[in-house]
């Protein structure tokens, strides 16, 4: 077959390609780095021609033109499966709606329940066999493509080639239109430097990491601090099985500690489903046989995670209540982030022989605008607060004041342990609240 000729036959300008969109359509932009740039701009320019266009995305790393041109949401309704800082700002301005999910179920949502009229996905250049690599976001992208009635790919020359695994490619025969974006670059996601609190929390977690542990590190400063501290520790022969491939893994690899030699499955391979980080990380991914990208219904499947011995899952949260309910995505009704795969890994790590899941957080939050400090340990989650991890799944909580295990504990044991790592300024008040809720024993010491 002549794939070069087929490529030319399907090649369009962005303006021509987006003519495929009709009023009332559901459009899918894909995940994080794989969201389109030129197609987004071309679709925004059709605002006066269209009505009722709904757009799904996730973890947006660039400003979206469909939002910028339509501040009153007259035409474009922008939605996100998982909030980045940009998505959160849009949500606060009523310009973005959240889509609740558990990450491992994302492919099922598309295959079983959702309509996608047009998928617009950024991809790496086509190879000689006619395949476009999905690069930094395999995630649920194949499910989106299979569901979509029309598929438009935006070819980005800067994308690395991510090796699978499975579901990491789309063949030209599955593509309706091709747009070339040229050298638009890739969004990077640098991690903020770790501070003393991050490092305190990291030390408490790293002491539970043993030779041969399999690591999952979430997004944010604290998980990154854990990864960097592991890189400087004495442990060795670590493995990686994660949803998000972040720079901390590269740091561990550079120290010769990431070998995957003791993995029960996928031995010798670092397994992941999407990545966002620095250019150096993207270069490490490119055509690297040490790394294997899989769809999220594999990476985040608790039944898969549970097959590993000594699985260590590290994620962070916003606040926790005295019952052990964990919110990692909202403050009251304000959506901050998303469930993502946290519950997937909290569940899977507990099923692992010797496995542990750690939810880390700061004991208090300082509001610089109001010059006030509030506790991140609360009696009960605020009205409208989202439970990311139910109390029945909570394993370990860690902050700068300590580390406590909640699995199998009664309500009074939970209250006692959680209050023991609350900020000291708030402990007495939390004890009073626990007494009122009848989850505090008289014999407990304050």
UniProtKB/TrEMBL annotation:
Residues given in the record as CoA binding sites: 218-222, 318, 341
Reaction catalysis annotation: butanoate + acetyl-CoA = butanoyl-CoA + acetate
Organism, as annotated: Sporomusa silvacetica DSM 10669
E.C. numbers: 2.8.3.-
Active site location: 243 (5-glutamyl coenzyme a thioester intermediate)
Molecular-function GO terms, alphabetical: transferase activity
Stored HAMAP family: But_CoA_trans
Compartment list: Cytoplasm
Pathway, per record: Lipid metabolism; butanoate metabolism
Acetyl-CoA hydrolase/transferase N-terminal domain sequence ranges: 5-182
General function of this protein: Coenzyme A-transferase that converts butyrate to butyryl-CoA.
Assigned keywords, A-Z: Cytoplasm, Fatty acid metabolism, Lipid metabolism, Transferase
Protein name (record): Probable butyrate:acetyl-CoA coenzyme A-transferase
Family: Belongs to the acetyl-CoA hydrolase/transferase family.
InterPro entries in the cross-refs: AcetylCoA_hyd_C, AcetylCoA_hyd_C_sf, ActCoA_hydro, ActCoA_hydro_N, Butryl-CoA_acetate_CoA_Tfrase, NagB/RpiA_transferase-like
Domain Acetyl-CoA hydrolase/transferase C-terminal: 277-434
Predominant subcellular localization, coarse grouping: cytoplasm
